[in-house]
């Protein structure tokens, strides 16, 4: 259940448990001893040995007993649990071993970035912050997705639209993958911005109102996906496949510029036929 703020001690405990339980002892050259293992994955003592810490230390971490590991211990845990880069960054955020950004969080696009989004036409493009709030977009993106000008500001959020907007529920062919990647991004953003109450409230709304989001949130996947492919069912022109690229402005590291390119000739033809909204 989502709380009013990030309880990093409880989240750290749950995250460490889930990462430990997903590991296969055989990958570490350990006997499986399936009959004697009450839970999946590695035992606490095995993680402790791999990380070079005491068993009691791992127990206290997993029981949320208020420990704050040093950067060296966090790195050792990340190696022991074989965390991928996004999970490692998440662990550092949870333990407050990475500096937090105390600047005011962006809710509007800088004029230069808004102009850049417009100048990227005819490629569909939009600018979002770490919450997935849509701050700027060009006409091509509005024709492909929605006319954002007609939406209340509170609904100009890519995840909110995907989960809550009825006509968007079947818009993505591989909907679960799109939602899963979005959840994993929001979890990373949540840990990196514990001061962002608006983000915490948004996640709480999703957990309460959408069972799919709640299920995926409980899996504690962490990933920031910078590029990939999406296939969309557009109501006017049919199937459109795009490759997307996500770029981060150096002076605005909590914002991302998302650019779509047609994945094939048929999709480009469909993009060219999109009617104005």
Automatic annotation (TrEMBL):
Name of a matching Pfam family: HTH_31
Q: Which InterPro entries match?
A: Cro/C1-type_HTH, Lambda_DNA-bd_dom_sf, MLTR_LBD
Matching SUPFAM superfamilies: lambda repressor-like DNA-binding domains
**Signal sequence, renumbered to the chain:** none
| UniProt xrefs under PROSITE patterns | HTH_CROC1 (PS50943)
Gene Ontology MF terms in the entry: DNA binding
Q: Where is the HTH cro/C1-type domain?
A: 41-91
Record's protein name: Helix-turn-helix protein
Organism the protein comes from: Amycolatopsis cihanbeyliensis
């Amino acid at each position: 259940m989502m709380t009013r703020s990030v309880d990093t001690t409880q989240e750290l405990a749950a995250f460490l448990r889930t990462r430990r339980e997903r590991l296969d002892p055989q990958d570490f050259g350990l006997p499986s001893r399936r009959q004697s293992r009450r839970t999946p994955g590695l035992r606490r003592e095995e993680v402790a040995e791999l990380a070079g810490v005491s068993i009691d230390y791992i127990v206290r971490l997993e029981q949320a007993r208020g420990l704050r590991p040093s950067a060296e211990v966090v790195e050792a845990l990340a190696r022991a649990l074989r965390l991928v880069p996004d999970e490692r960054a998440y662990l550092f955020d949870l333990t407050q071993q990475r500096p937090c950004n105390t600047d005011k969080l962006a809710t509007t696009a800088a004029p230069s970035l808004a102009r850049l989004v417009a100048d990227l036409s005819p490629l569909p493009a939009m600018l979002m912050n770490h919450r997935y709030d849509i701050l700027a977009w060009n006409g091509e993106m509005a024709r492909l997705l929605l006319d954002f000008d007609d939406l209340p500001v509170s609904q100009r959020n890519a995840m909110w639209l995907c989960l809550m907007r009825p006509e968007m529920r079947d818009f993505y062919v591989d909907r679960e993958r799109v939602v899963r990647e979005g959840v994993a991004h929001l979890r990373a953003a949540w840990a990196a911005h514990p001061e962002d109450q608006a983000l915490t409230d948004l996640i709480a709304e999703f957990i309460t109102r959408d069972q799919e989001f709640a299920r995926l949130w409980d899996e504690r996947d962490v990933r920031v996906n910078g590029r990939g492919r999406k296939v969309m069912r557009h109501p006017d022109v049919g199937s459109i496949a795009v490759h997307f690229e996500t770029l981060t402005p150096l002076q605005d590291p909590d914002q991302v510029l998302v650019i779509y390119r047609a994945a094939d000739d048929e999709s480009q033809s469909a993009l060219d036929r999109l009617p104005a909204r």
